[in-house]
Amino acid sequence: HAKRAGGSAAQFFEPTMNQSAFERLVLENELRDAVAQDQLVVFYQPKVLMTDGACAGAEALVRWQHPTAGLLSPGAFIEAAEECGLIGEIGDWVLRAACREAAAWRDRGLEIPVAVNVSAMQFERDGFSDSVLEALAAANLPPHLLELELTESIAMENPERVIEQVQPLRDRGVNFAIDDFGTGHSSLAYLTRMPFDVFKIDQSFVRDMTTDHHARIVVETILAMAKSLKLETVAEGVETPEQHQMLRAQGATLAQGFLFARPMPAGDFVAFATESHTDRAVGE
Ligand code: C2E
Ligand code: MG
Ligand code: MG
Ligand code: MG
């Protein structure tokens, strides 16, 4: 402690706190460049039919091709983007890129809807629904080929916002999914009133369902609820044949997970979708 009193450097730097604040500052600056310099890329992960594996959809997942650190996952930068106010710009960019891509698939005869994640701040911004309509128009994509994924907590925390922003888009045919379903604290009464088309069963339940009785009951309950409400379900994070078998037996219709395909660049996705459709046609 005698050292500390004498050394100004030791007093100036509180190692952990200042280091992470500094790193965050660097990250935010780099992220600004990333947007300006086209370093963001969108990967697409197939959603497939439980029954025959045919590709029935795609989720757009952003990646950052960082000049030195390599390909970064959204977990490494989405939160920073929200905090420094770049999420609106990034979200719009992903939305536009995904709409253009789905329109290109359609031109090749692949009518595959694309799903885009919407962050809380993006959803709360004024003009959210207008920016979606602009992206559709710019890409010349029919609204029914776009799905927007909102997490259960976003939907829960902004009930008025949901009605105001979701309904007009939904009236035009845009579909809405609740992402990470089952992890929030929504009341049943509330959920049955929300204007959604799809429940995406959170991957934590899928991961545990073959070993944990409670996780299996949660999945069963979500599937039964979706059936009564006539909503579609997607089981996320399907990694093993056992999970696939169990979900299929329970009547789940769509799966997304590493067992079928990982998120991939757009070009690979077109090949995957084309092949999955061809395989099916041959099998029939
Ligand atoms: P999410 O929307 O729940 O996306 C699914 C995540 O699960 C993706 O991670 C995907 O790669 C991963 N995943 C898919 N199948 C499996 C599997 O079988 N096993 C495991 N362990 N993981 C699987 P990713 O791409 O790292 O994205 C993480 C989260 O980042 C997303 O979760 C979403 O909340 C957010 N995100 C991604 N792209 C965007 C975006 O463009 N905008 C916003 N606002 N958020 C995004
Ligand atoms: Mg999602
Ligand atoms: Mg619809
Ligand atoms: Mg999810």
Question: What is the topological layout?
Answer:
Blueprint: H1 2-6, H2 8-12, H3 15-36, E1 40-49, E2 55-66, E3 70-72, H4 78-83, H5 87-107, E4 114-117, H6 120-124, H7 128-139, E5 146-151, H8 152-157, H9 159-171, E6 175-181, H10 188-193, E7 198-201, H11 203-208, H12 213-229, E8 232-236, H13 241-249, E9 254-256, E10 264-265, H14 266-283
Parallel strand pairs: 2-4, 4-5, 5-6, 6-7, 7-8, 8-9
Antiparallel strand pairs: 1-2, 1-9, 1-10, 2-3
Helix pairs in contact: 5-7, 7-9
Bound molecules: ligand C2E and magnesium ion (3 copies).
Question: What keywords describe this structure?
Answer:
single chain; 284 residues; alpha/beta; 8-stranded mixed β-barrel; 14 helices; 10 strands; binds ligand C2E; binds magnesium ion; Diguanylate cyclase/phosphodiesterase
Beta-strand residue percentage? 15-25%
| Oligomeric status | single chain
End-to-end distance: 78 Å
State mean pLDDT (0 to 100 scale): 90
Uncertain regions: pLDDT < 50 for 5+ in a row?
1-14
Lateral arrangement of strands in the main beta sheet = 1-2-4-5-6-7-8-9
Domain EAL: 24-277
Protein name: Diguanylate cyclase/phosphodiesterase
Keywords: Membrane, Transmembrane, Transmembrane helix
GO cellular component, one term: membrane
